[in-house]
Design a protein that fits this description.
Layout: H1 12-33, H2 35-45, H3 57-69, H4 71-81, H5 83-103, H6 107-135, H7 142-169, H8 172-193, H9 199-207, H10 214-232, H11 235-239, H12 259-277, H13 285-294, H14 297-315, H15 328-348, H16 362-391, H17 398-422, H18 428-446, H19 459-483, H20 490-524, H21 530-533, H22 537-576, H23 583-592
Helix pairs in contact: 1-6, 1-7, 1-8, 2-7, 3-6, 3-14, 4-5, 4-6, 4-20, 5-6, 5-8, 6-20, 7-17, 7-19, 10-12, 14-15, 14-20, 16-17, 16-19, 16-20, 16-22, 17-19, 18-19, 18-22, 20-22
Length: 595
């Protein structure tokens, strides 16, 4: 990767490359939230009854599992193989996952697609953040980091809107078909920009054969066509006396235990074998396997098991009735065992997933801790602001309740760009603390909300202050981490920041919801039984209002808890980031040799 180490201008191609990467991050972030409105249709599309919503939880948790569990490995690969190859690989995985989701016919197939989408979407974030550090000198990273953080949050706004727009004219499969096309276009665009932006990619392209790998292309097309037929099962072919025999199972009723399924599997096996043994294959499979080994695949799998246990324990729970899922304690026990094995492995491995000393500086590991509490506070806004709106002024309409959250989310990317600019003048610790104290202030104002507050302009003050505060904190945390780690570990380091934030969100929503429910049940004890109150239309309304007041008390408790998490993040940032200077002064030290 071309490193800009002086105060000179960043090339136009490099800026365009980063812009394409930022668009990819926004696209992947939107993909995270696109299922919000499409989930019921997706359930019925793969044969899950709409009244069994709990069975759809893996569609969401499967994406999270792929997004979080594989992040450290992908971040490490970005350090070893380069940022651009990982960006392209992540987009291809995202497109492949979108293709499988588009064609999905049952729960296993849709889970496989969503998992691959999560792996690809998660891999874009650390590679893009590390790309900022590669392309920009320390004193110019603030605004690019802010822009990347901003577009990531804009995706959370665009995702549900994009899903709603597509569903208005087509079905849910069209959402992922569009994802497939956009992912491939972005991958091609980034790959085309790479030769003039990075030394290593120019060398890789120069070493590629001039003659296309016709055998590899033929096997790939055979795999794709046969696989598509297995997924789609065209009725015209199935009714044909000759072609229909391709769909008759050898045993049972599985789609893959058929002649056409066997052709697809055999073509894939031959493709992998060809890419392994051929001198110049379509896909450098051996090269990627070597990279996986060099990136410490064993350590990555152990860490993935640990993170996966945490994710499944919290993401599969119903926060209305439990902190963990029924098997949550077993998931957490497995996560603890895997974490202990990972720690033992890191101490003994020659080249571990996390290089020794990579996070030794206080601001580096401090960024992980701050990110955890930022996530724990942020999830309260993302989940409980719409819930408050549904509890009070929009009990029967989901869309206006969601639009209340949009007011918060629109302020967030503005704060991200402003925060990126401010770290040129102030230390990241001060900017982060200021932002999180603003977020805490926003939550405190939310604890003053009543039955009709959301219909009043004053509600926008809390939403704007809170969103702006969270935005201010995003870029400084990443800047503190990048300034405190070496260039060759930026990918894996930024991956751990994202992981910490996501785990904080999962733990935060369970813990804060538990606190809120205790308050709700305490308030509900003061509500008389329905048969004692609801003896007429007006009295029934009174009973309903009493329950709504109890629901408001529950949300207030959550907002107080979120404010506490935000204050903790602010204090930690002031203490742990105190060694990190404003990027303007850091650049002066770098170029004059001072300090």
């Amino acid at each position: 990767m071309d490193h800009v180490v002086g105060p000179g201008e960043v090339s136009r191609t490099s800026r365009v490359l980063l812009a394409m990467a930022a668009v990819a991050v926004a696209f992947a972030a939107a993909d995270t939230y696109v299922v919000v409105l499409a989930l019921p249709d997706m359930m019925t599309g793969v044969g899950v009854p709409i009244d069994q919503l709990q069975r759809a939880a893996p569609i969401v948790s499967g994406f999270l599992l792929g997004y979080v569990a594989m992040l450290p490995l992908i971040g490490r690969i970005a350090d070893l193989r380069g940022r651009v190859p990982v960006l392209v690989m992540a987009l291809v995985l995202l497109a492949l996952g979108s293709l499988i989701t588009t064609l999905a016919y049952d729960m296993p197939s849709i889970l496989a697609g969503r998992f691959l989408q999560g792996v690809g979407g998660g891999g874009l974030v650390p590679a893009t953040l590390a790309l900022v550090a590669d392309l920009y000198p320390v004193h110019r990273r603030g605004i690019p980091l802010g822009v990347v953080s901003a577009v990531q949050e804009i995706g959370s706004v665009l995702g549900p809107l994009f899903g709603a727009a597509v569903l208005a004219v087509s079905d849910w499969r069209a959402i992922f078909a569009i994802n497939l096309a956009v992912g491939l276009v972005l991958a091609a665009a980034i790959r085309a920009l790479a030769p003039t932006s990075t030394i290593e990619v120019r060398a890789q392209r120069a070493s590629r054969p001039r003659v296309p790998d016709l055998v590899g292309i033929l096997l790939l097309l055979t795999t794709l066509v046969a696989g598509a037929v297995v997924f789609l099962r065209p009725s015209a072919l199935m009714r044909d006396l000759t072609w229909g025999q391709l769909f008759i199972p050898f045993a049972g009723d599985g789609r893959w235990l058929t002649p056409i399924g066997a052709i697809a599997v055999a073509a894939l096996a031959l493709l992998l074998a060809w890419c392994w043994f051929a001198p110049r294959p379509l896909l450098d499979l051996r090269g990627w396997v070597r990279v996986l080994v060099d990136a410490d695949l064993v350590g990555a799998l152990l860490l993935a098991l640990a993170l996966g246990g945490v994710i499944l324990a919290f993401a599969t729970a119903d926060p209305k009735i439990e902190v963990f899922s029924p098997r949550g304690r077993w998931y957490l026990l497995g996560a603890a065992v895997a974490a202990a094995a990972f720690a033992w492995h890191v101490r003994r491995a020659a080249d571990p997933l996390v290089p020794r000393g990579a996070l030794r500086r206080t601001p580096a590991w401090g960024a992980l801790l701050v990110s955890f509490f930022v996530g724990a506070a942020l999830i309260a806004a993302l989940i409980d602001i719409p819930l408050f709106a549904r509890t009070t002024v929009y009990p029967d309409d989901q869309l206006p309740a969601a639009l209340v959250l949009v007011r918060f989310l629109l302020a967030l990317p503005v704060g991200a760009v402003v925060g990126g600019y401010l770290i040129r003048l102030l230390s990241p610790g001060v900017v982060t603390a200021t932002g999180m104290l603003m977020a805490a202030g926003g939550f405190v104002l939310m604890t003053r909300w009543g039955l009709t507050t959301l219909e009043e302009p004053v509600a926008n003050v809390a939403l704007f202050v809170g969103g702006l505060g969270f935005g201010l904190a995003l870029a400084p945390v990443n800047a503190a981490l990048l300034a405190s780690t070496d260039d060759d570990v930026h990918g894996v380091a930024t991956a751990f920041v994202v992981v910490s934030r996501m785990v904080g969100m999962l733990v935060g929503i369970s813990a804060l919801t538990t606190v809120g429910l205790r308050r709700y049940y305490a308030e509900q004890k003061a509500v008389p039984p329905v048969q004692e109150v609801c003896d007429g239309k007006s009295r029934c309304q009174e009973f309903s209002d009493l329950l709504r007041v109890a629901g408001i008390a529950q949300e207030h408790a959550v907002f107080w808890g979120a404010a506490g998490c935000a204050v903790v993040a602010a204090v930690l940032a002031l203490v742990l980031f105190r060694q990190v200077r404003p990027t303007r002064l850091a650049a002066r030290d770098l170029f004059t040799g001072a300090g």
